[in-house]
Design brief:
349 residues, alpha+beta, Ribosomal Protein S8, Chain: A, domain 1, five-stranded antiparallel sheet, four-stranded antiparallel sheet, 6 helices, 12 strands, 21% helix
């Protein structure tokens, strides 16, 4: 009788021991150690602002010349994401691409991210921290890459001045320029030149020229026993203006360039006098002649404006003729084959 009881007692003791062992977490079930690190992401969260042109468009509109669609002022800059939106987007990118099942926001038990003053405070394992560092290191490579753009406006006869690289100029759609030949052109052939450095994908603009004021209209002001003219003064900008958006492609050998160019010149305006304009009492049948020095004429300017708007893909480090047109197409210039040509060269940093 004693022996069966002893055996049963021993079995019960072993059963409780096994149950106790099962309740203890195994070494492999222990969560990995985590650390909290600070990541400086202010460079990623600060967007590169766009600077579209707005000067020449407003001026050309005043003289009845359309600046073209989506160029030079009429359309506002696309809204930039707000600061918190950029923070949320970066946090979402990390949590969705780096060990996504470990983040507390995704139902995990390990990772957490908070933003503080443009920095990300991240709690994660050493292995996940390494992946996060690798991801953040890759992001600025494309976003913060610098691009240098050089533009030359030249006036030349394409048939008389050889600008193309020998053997390459007419072989394809792109006409590559021989930089040495470009530098040998006479001084009067170089109409204007511009150079700027910006981020890839950023829109920037440059302008240079003179602003000419002219009397465009006379508005009569009539009062008792008197009449005067109030002149309307407009302005016209003569010079060159450029808006460019260069985007380096993933191959690292070419760039897509969105380019808008306006070159304008001011010719002598033709005055139009109001010979019959009189200033005098309004109650008289015939007014007195205009007072000496009074404004009694308007000006009709004859602006010359050439525009070029295009988007194309160009190789890096090679000057390319984007386009050209007769500088002043008119009957008086028949036989003059000179063109105002635009040359662009994009270099990646």
């Amino acid at each position: 009788m004693t022996r069966p009881i002893l055996i049963a007692s021993t079995m019960i003791t072993m059963l409780f021991a096994v149950m106790a062992l099962g309740q203890q977490p195994a070494a492999n079930d222990q969560p990995p150690p985590v650390t909290t690190l600070l990541y400086d992401t202010r460079g990623l969260l600060q967007p590169a602002r766009n600077y579209p042109s707005s000067v020449l468009g407003a001026v050309t509109e005043r003289v009845g010349v359309s600046p073209g669609p989506n160029v030079f002022g009429p359309n506002p800059e696309p809204p930039q994401p707000a600061g918190q939106e950029r923070v949320d987007a970066l946090i979402k990118l990390i949590e969705e691409t780096v060990d996504n099942d470990t983040w507390k926001d995704n139902g995990g038990a390990t990772g957490a991210i908070r933003e503080f003053g443009g920095n990300l405070v991240i709690t994660q394992t050493a292995e996940t921290h390494a992946k996060i560092r690798d991801l953040l290191a890759k992001l600025p490579d494309q976003q913060a890459r610098l691009v240098r753009v050089r533009i030359d406006w030249i006036v030349a006869d394409p048939n008389q001045v050889r600008l193309d690289v020998a053997g390459e100029g007419s072989a394809g759609a792109l006409r590559q320029v021989d930089r040495a030949a470009l530098q040998k052109l006479p001084a009067e052939a170089l109409r204007a030149a511009a150079e700027t450095t910006c981020f890839t994908g950023q829109t920037v603009s440059l302008s240079s020229g003179r602003i000419q004021s002219y009397v465009s209209d006379l508005n009569p002001i009539v009062a008792q026993d008197a009449a005067e003219f109030d002149p309307s003064v407009n302005t016209f900008r003569a010079g060159a203006e450029l808006q460019v958006t260069p985007t380096i492609q993933t191959d690292g050998k070419s760039a897509v360039v969105d380019l808008h160019s306006v070159v304008s010149d001011w010719d002598e305006s033709t005055p139009y006098e109001f010979h019959g304009a009189t200033l005098g009492p309004t109650t008289q049948s015939a007014g007195a002649p205009a007072k000496p020095g009074a404004v009694n004429q308007i000006q009709r300017p004859r602006p010359m404006i050439q525009q070029l708007h295009t988007t194309l893909r160009v190789p890096l480090g090679k000057p390319i003729i984007v386009g050209g047109m007769t500088l002043e197409p008119s009957a008086s210039r028949v036989g003059d084959r000179s063109q105002l040509m635009l040359v662009v060269e994009v270099s990646g940093g």
